[in-house]
């Protein structure tokens, strides 16, 4: 069977991996994980014992977790697409650096804001503190990325890469949490996000998250359930 990407909704960072698959020419399947439905199916522990998404079930039945590892794995499958680069090259190092920044500093900046959704019983003062901390940290990240994009078409320069696929899945959270007027506060970041939102692969990923059945570029072979994968996970 084709590789299976386990993606989380709503607003999962696994969004970027769906975009990455659509930018490539390899068949794949998806398995939807409703992150707010607790507890998760215990079978998922065989995919990722940490119960997090994304995860990628490879053709040989081996699971691969963590966004950075998954995106670099996909990039290495097809270096001709220029979404990734040969290990040891300067371009590879720059991509790794950008993915690491997005996956650590920028991602974690939103943690106080997600805590508002996940933590019960917070009083008004505690809620205001979390929102202020989140806004300050996200503002730092947006300012940094806005500066990088001042004279660049893409995060690494003139060509798109796996970093841009991951970026769109994280940067959209600034809109989701209604933190800023991106167009006026961070115009370069807003321009880049709007350009990506116009991309067919991004529109496909958005439709997938909404529960629709988009056609995509023809590489998507449909959804599978955890139950349907049980025998493969037990191997």
TrEMBL record:
Residues 1-82 form the GST N-terminal domain. SUPFAM superfamilies: GST C-terminal domain-like, Thioredoxin-like. Gene3D superfamilies: 1.20.1050.10, Glutaredoxin. PROSITE patterns: GST_CTER, GST_NTER. Keywords: Transferase. Residues 88-215 form the GST C-terminal domain. It comes from the Bacteria. GO terms for molecular function: transferase activity. Pfam families: GST_C_2, GST_N_2. This is Glutathione S-transferase. It comes from Halomonas heilongjiangensis. The lineage of its organism: Bacteria, Pseudomonadati, Pseudomonadota, Gammaproteobacteria, Oceanospirillales.
């Amino acid at each position: 069977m084709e590789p299976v990407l386990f993606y989380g909704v709503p607003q999962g960072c696994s969004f970027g991996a769906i975009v990455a698959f659509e930018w490539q020419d390899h068949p794949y399947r998806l398995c939807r994980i409703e992150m707010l439905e607790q507890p998760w199916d215990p079978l998922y522990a065989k995919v990722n014992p940490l119960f997090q998404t994304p995860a990628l079930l490879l053709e040989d039945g081996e699971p691969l977790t963590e966004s950075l590892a998954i995106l670099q794995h996909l990039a290495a499958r097809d270096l001709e697409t220029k979404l990734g680069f040969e290990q040891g090259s300067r371009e590879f190092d720059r991509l790794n650096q950008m993915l690491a920044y997005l996956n650590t500093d920028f991602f974690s900046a939103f943690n106080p804001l997600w805590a508002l959704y996940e933590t019960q019983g917070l009083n008004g003062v505690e809620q205001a503190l979390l929102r202020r901390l989140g806004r300050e940290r996200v503002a730092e990240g947006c300012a940094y990325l806005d500066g990088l994009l001042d004279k660049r078409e893409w995060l690494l320069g003139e060509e798109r890469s796996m970093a841009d696929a991951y970026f769109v899945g994280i940067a959209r959270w600034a809109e989701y949490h209604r933190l800023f007027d991106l167009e006026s506060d961070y115009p370069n970041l807003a321009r880049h996000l709007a350009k990506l939102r116009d991309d067919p692969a991004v529109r496909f990923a958005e439709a997938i998250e909404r529960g629709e059945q988009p056609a995509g570029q023809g590489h998507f072979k449909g959804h599978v359930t955890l139950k349907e994968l049980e025998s493969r996970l037990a191997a």
